[in-house]
Amino acid sequence: MAGRRTRHAVVAVLGAALVTTGATGCGGSVAATSATSGVPASLTSSGTPPSSPDVPTAVPAGQPTPADVPPEGAFDPVLALMVQRLDTADTVAAAKWVTQQPVTDPAREAVVLAAAPARAEQVGADLDYVTAVFGDQITANKQAQQQILDGWTAGSGTPPTTAPDLATQVRPVLDRITTDLVPALAAVQDYRDDSGCAKFLADDVASVPPPASDAGRAALPTAVAHLCDG
């Protein structure tokens, strides 16, 4: 139940961030804010050392330590790779339109969901975290593909007449993104438990260039749903 509440909070905050990004253009940004804990002075007001220099100042209950708070832009590498992945949805949808293949490809999904945990073991990333996030990438890409296909079905835009070669045009890109995304996730996985994670993530979403298509932008909240799921 806590995980669902967290994901709902992330989606809600990101929705607002994406609206802000759309209003300001791809270059628009929302400045990230961060809370800094007070640093105890090394000297007292009289200029003499404190009586107990070896006793650390207590952090108020519930306040995250500086090490647990994401720095500004911490999620940028992850988000940039997610955007690149969503930008492949147009090409994949074109291939499926021409060949009349379904959006869901269980065999290909199994390959991705096997490769990501294997890569996680190599770089020391949390297996459950990586698996959940990559499941979101698959769902988000299918969401974008379906929106594109539905648009062509409804007469919006000009549908393709030639199928792109997914084996040479898309899958190498996806494989490279998998290789890069897993260590990027390892770098942010400890921030997912921070109470302000969704806000920090939304700030970073607003500062990163969004997916190129409307379908990709609509699917981005799905792609990031588990990033702050502590």
From TrEMBL:
<dbReference type="GO" id="GO:0046417">
    <property type="term" value="P:chorismate metabolic process"/>
</dbReference>
<dbReference type="InterPro" id="IPR036263">
    <property type="entry name" value="Chorismate_II_sf"/>
</dbReference>
<dbReference type="GO" id="GO:0009697">
    <property type="term" value="P:salicylic acid biosynthetic process"/>
</dbReference>
<feature type="compositionally biased region" description="Low complexity">
    <location>
        <begin position="40"/>
        <end position="57"/>
    </location>
</feature>
<feature type="signal peptide">
    <location>
        <begin position="1"/>
        <end position="25"/>
    </location>
</feature>
<feature type="domain" description="Chorismate mutase">
    <location>
        <begin position="56"/>
        <end position="149"/>
    </location>
</feature>
<dbReference type="InterPro" id="IPR036979">
    <property type="entry name" value="CM_dom_sf"/>
</dbReference>
<protein>
    <recommendedName>
        <fullName>chorismate mutase</fullName>
        <ecNumber>5.4.99.5</ecNumber>
    </recommendedName>
</protein>
<keyword id="KW-0732">Signal</keyword>
<dbReference type="InterPro" id="IPR002701">
    <property type="entry name" value="CM_II_prokaryot"/>
</dbReference>
<dbReference type="InterPro" id="IPR008240">
    <property type="entry name" value="Chorismate_mutase_periplasmic"/>
</dbReference>
<dbReference type="Pfam" id="PF01817">
    <property type="entry name" value="CM_2"/>
</dbReference>
<comment type="pathway">
    <text>Metabolic intermediate biosynthesis; prephenate biosynthesis; prephenate from chorismate: step 1/1.</text>
</comment>
<feature type="region of interest" description="Disordered">
    <location>
        <begin position="33"/>
        <end position="65"/>
    </location>
</feature>
<keyword id="KW-0413">Isomerase</keyword>
<dbReference type="InterPro" id="IPR051331">
    <property type="entry name" value="Chorismate_mutase-related"/>
</dbReference>
<dbReference type="GO" id="GO:0004106">
    <property type="term" value="F:chorismate mutase activity"/>
</dbReference>
